[in-house]
Amino acid sequence: MTTTNTRIPVTKAVVPAAGLGTRFLPATKATPKEMLPVVDKPAIQYVVEEAAAAGLSDILMVTGRNKRALEDHFDRAYELEELLARKGDEDRLRRVRESVELANMHYVRQGDPKGLGHAVSVAEQHVAGQPFAVLLGDDLIDPRDPLLARMIEVQQELGGSVVALMEVDPSQIHLYGCAAVKANGFGDDVFQVTDLVEKPDTADAPSNYAVIGRYVLDPSVFDVLRETKPGRGGEIQLTDALRELTTRDAESGGQVHGVLFKGRRYDTGDRADYLRAIVRLASEREDLGPEFRTWLREFVASELQD
After folding, report:
1. pLDDT at position 2
2. What's residue 306's pLDDT?
3. CA distances (Å), origin 189, targets 29, 213, 301
């Protein structure tokens, strides 16, 4: 097995954030869906915090039209900071500055919305031939479950690309990319991916292992993406490019590995799951949790009586 010190360290992350957020209209008519608050932070900040915690200090956000608020959020707000400083409100001042200090942020526009594969492809120049992580903004991973750090560890040991997998009910597999896997001897949570299918019909799914929104990719994926034709939904699918990499040998950047995740994940891309994420995270907060849990118990009790 190749040792980790022969690998190029993973220091860069790509965060696709060009989607229109149509499931949250009209809230997203003028506000990027990534800026919708989860308790008191926008969803996108949780994602950037996760990348920074995994040691990824260089983050490229792939945006689109009407996404200027994303850049503003991770930039200094001098007038606001000055106001808070004059008031002596150190707590809010610290929280305002947190987003600025997380990582070195860069931005590029996707242009035409041609799918996730296309969004990743526009990051090629920034990635500059290095392995890199991709974090989808709709998936929030609880910081107590360091999935991304484990995926980087696997990529550094085994090379190739790594996807995050989660077991789902077979009736839900049509909502995800789906992986066929086999054991590779690296650990109980690590598999070799032998095939990938984007949103298969339940009867055609090779497993109930769903690909969720975290990837650590070999730069060879860009060569494949250039040749990838539009797939499901008429879009260039990252899943289709990774499927091609499963057929290639390690020397040419091929092989795809999967890390099975059994931790806490919050899906903010669905309205009902978004509400559940807010309730869960608010309930666990030291400053909000006790009062909020009390109210929640009383609310549920009253609803059951009705």
Report:
1. 39
2. 67
3. 41, 17, 40
Biggest distance spanned by C-alpha atoms of the chain: 64
> Rounded to whole angstroms, how far apart are CA atoms 98 and 84?
14
User: Taking the CA atoms of the chain, what radius of gyration do you get in angstroms?
Assistant: 20
pTM for the structure as a whole: 0.90
| Least confident span in 88-92, 177-181, 182-186, 188-192 | 182-186
β-bridge mates for residue 195, sequence order:
180
Q: With beta carbons less than 8 A apart as the criterion, state whether 215 and 163 touch.
A: yes
Mean pLDDT (the chain) is 90
Q: State the Cα–Cα distance between residues 138 and 269, nearest whole angstrom.
A: 5
pLDDT, tens only, 234-246:
888 899 999 999 9
126-143, pLDDT tens digit by residue? 998 999 999 998 899 998
Distance of alpha carbon 159 from alpha carbon 170, whole angstroms: 30
Angle between helices 289-305 and 271-284 in degrees, nearest 10: 130
Neighbours of 80 (CB within 10 A): 12
Distance of CA 296 to the CA centre of its chain: 29
Q: How far is CA 255 from the centre of its chain?
A: 21
Sign for the pseudo-dihedral over CA of 123, 55, 267, 101? negative
25: exposed, middle or buried (C-beta count within 10 Å: 0-12, 13-18, 19+)?
exposed
With residue 79 as reference, give the H or E element that holds it: helix 78-87
- Using the structure block, give the residue that is written with the tokens 């109210």: 295
Q: What is the dihedral sign for C-alpha 57, 122, 160, 141?
A: positive
**Alpha-carbon distance values, 174 to 55, 166, 171, 207, 259 (Å):** 33, 14, 7, 11, 20
8 Å CB contact between 63 and 17: yes
Going from the C-alpha of 80 to that of each of 41, 98, 180, the distances in angstroms are 16, 14, 51
Higher-pLDDT residue of 254, 257: 257
Q: Are 123 and 217 in contact (CB under 8 A)?
A: no
